[in-house]
Specification:
The structure is a homodimer. By secondary structure, chain A is mainly alpha-helical. Chain A has 9 helices and 3 strands; from the N terminus they run H-E-H-H-E-E-H-H-H-H-H-H. Chain A binds a DNA duplex through helix 3.
DNA sequence: CCGCGACATATTGAATGCATGAATGAAGTT
DNA sequence: AACTTCATTCATGCATTCAATATGTCGCGG
């Protein structure tokens, strides 16, 4: 790996953000982080710079860095864009997928099935990511693949919430099956449409979730366990 | 703006990259840049970190930062994604645009017309950007708008090449007219399709351009894709 | 009693210094 | 003569230090 310190730190902090260890809106104190990781402030700053450029943290001059809080509306917008990009990846994959792509998609799809049937949400969550990445790769557009992976990462925490919803995992797997069929049959339009719906529905579900949470708990500022 | 030093530097270097002052593949020496801008190496490093996170420069451990050279293939992929995002923005704009959006679109469109008729490519280039940004804004999706602006910036140098092509400016303006009509009439599908083609044709033209350049000059240093 | 202003403190932003690793050149060996 | 190896040099990466600014508190005046 030969990772440099600041790259390791960047991944570490990014991971802390998407896993919710650092809550949205939380202030990221440089000295504190430096002490925690046992390094100087310099590499911490460099890591925060990169995260700031990506859009995960917000740095205001002289006022430090805070974990960005997208807000429900912005998150919904991100799902919309994600849907558009995934649908594009699906269309390209339908037209361009090779034999290896086909094998990778089928394999990850099978893994998803196993997780779905045994009801292991964590496992499904992981395999779902592998599945979607297989589609990105099959699009044979390196840039699109990168964009999709980046957005997928950013949406990870919000996606995770949804698998807890009743039956979502089974439904999701059912959608996967149709998507696989369309892609492997080379039906670009169908793959595009199915993937768009597959992602868009997550945005809708997220909205529903937010609406419910808002109704239920008004002062619940932080992370809702459930 | 009262930007901080490193933010100013970031914009400065980014600008230098998209204007071609820093050639693709060129090594960005920290000390050199520091001397040039009259600052220490620290803010330079921070600026390079951000650019690295955006994808404009590539930093390899212990080997410094170089301007990233996407290569023809990658650039074409970027145009493809841009087309998809713009088409999405157009569809949303058709459905959501307000009276102010309508005014902004018409105004920038008129500016484009003036530039096109007087044949001023530089002016058209600028007004074209304003026009497209008006559409992004009319989509009323803050996240989509940001993504579009960022990608537009990155594609700026390659887009600029194309306006020199014979008659491209007039053709481009004609496409704009149809796009405006569709958006203002609320025809989301038409707007989407027209915008996709409008951008996609730029990717195609870029490919043609590259093909020509390759044929003409073989030992041309930098840009090698694939 | 409330509001405004000045000062102290703490945190960020920039500069400098030092160590490590990579690139380059020369010298020796095959 | 060419290839390999070692030493030297220089850029990068991190730590430390110095400076500037925002925030919070205390005091004074209305």
């Amino acid at each position: 790996m030969a990772q440099n310190t600041f790259q390791t730190l960047r991944d570490e902090i990014e991971n802390g953000i998407v896993t919710g260890e650092f809550a949205p809106g939380e202030r990221l104190d440089e000295a504190q982080l430096a002490a925690r990781f046992g390094v100087s402030r310099t590499p911490i700053r460099e890591a925060l710079m990169q995260l700031s450029a990506i859009g995960l943290v917000e740095t205001r001059p002289r006022r430090g860095a805070t974990v960005v809080d997208p807000g429900p509306n912005r998150i919904f917008e991100m799902f919309e864009v994600m849907a558009q990009l995934e649908s594009m990846a699906g269309a390209l994959a339908a037209r361009r997928h090779t034999e290896e792509d086909r094998a990778a998609i089928l394999k990850s799809h099978a893994e998803c099935e196993r997780s779905a049937q045994s009801g292991e949400t964590d496992s499904y969550y992981y395999n779902n990511e592998v599945f979607h990445r297989a589609i990105y790769a099959a699009s044979h557009s390196g840039f699109l693949e990168e964009q999709c992976i980046a957005l997928h990462r950013r949406l990870r925490p919000y996606r995770r919430l949804q698998l807890r919803v009743r039956n979502r995992m089974k439904v999701s797997f059912g959608e996967h099956a149709a998507i696989v069929e369309a892609i492997l049959a080379g039906q670009a339009d169908a793959a595009s449409r199915l993937l768009r719906d597959h992602i868009a529905v997550q945005g809708d579900r997220f909205s529903d979730l937010i609406a419910n949470l808002d109704r239920r708990s008004k002062p619940g500022a932080g992370s809702q366990g459930r």
